[in-house]
Structures are given as C-alpha cells and as structure tokens.
Write a structure and sequence with these properties.
41% helix; 2 strands; 111 residues
C-alpha cells in the first residue's frame, strides 16, 4: 500500500471504517477523542507537520537539483556560443547568419 506524503494516509482499501455509534441527546460523550487517532496525531498534529516537512524538504532538494542543472546547461551554452562566434570571426570568408524571420544577427566581412 502506498502512502501519500502530504496526508500520510494510505491509498489502498483497508476494509470498512469502525465508527462508534453517535451520542444521543441524553448521554454524555465520555470517550477520549485522541484514542481514535494514532499517537502522533493526538499530540497536536505533530505527525502531519513532520510528513509535510519531509515532503517540502524533498521538493526543495528536487528544485535545487533542477536549478543547478539549468545553470550548468546555460554555462555550457554560453561557452559553445563564444566558440562558434570565435570560429566565425576567424574564418577567411564572408559569413552571415540569419534567423527564421530573415533578420541578420551576425555578419562578418573579410578584412
């Protein structure tokens, strides 16, 4: 059975829930509400907080990895772009680049 990281609840079917009969108007509810909850939840939701904190830490790590990878890709792209323009500037020929809208972002003449 898998467990949802946010709620901490399982996704599988565990059979019918056991519920206590409702208290009638003349009776007093003497049952301890926290007895129905797991021990961690009866302590003010600390279990839920820990589950949410664990989930958020996991997402932060994923985000850090994504940002680091994106920075490495941008750095590699910048280096490759510098190499390309260095090569184009040192060729003994007329060179021009045009974009899809036919504008010319680069033009090199022979000196």
């Amino acid at each position: 059975m898998s467990v949802d990281p946010v709620t901490g609840k399982g996704s599988g079917y565990n059979g019918p829930e056991r519920r206590k009969p409702p208290v009638t108007a003349g009776e007093k509810d003497t049952s301890d509400k926290s007895a129905d909850l797991p021990p961690d939840l009866s302590e003010g939701g600390q279990h839920e907080c820990r589950v949410i904190e664990k989930y958020l830490k996991m997402k932060i790590v994923e985000l850090e990895k994504t940002v680091t990878m994106q920075k490495k890709i941008e750095e590699a792209l910048t280096i490759e772009r510098k190499r390309l323009f260095s090569l184009l500037n040192n060729l003994p020929a007329y060179v021009y680049l045009h974009s899809s809208d036919y504008s010319i972002p680069f033009f090199k003449q022979i000196l």
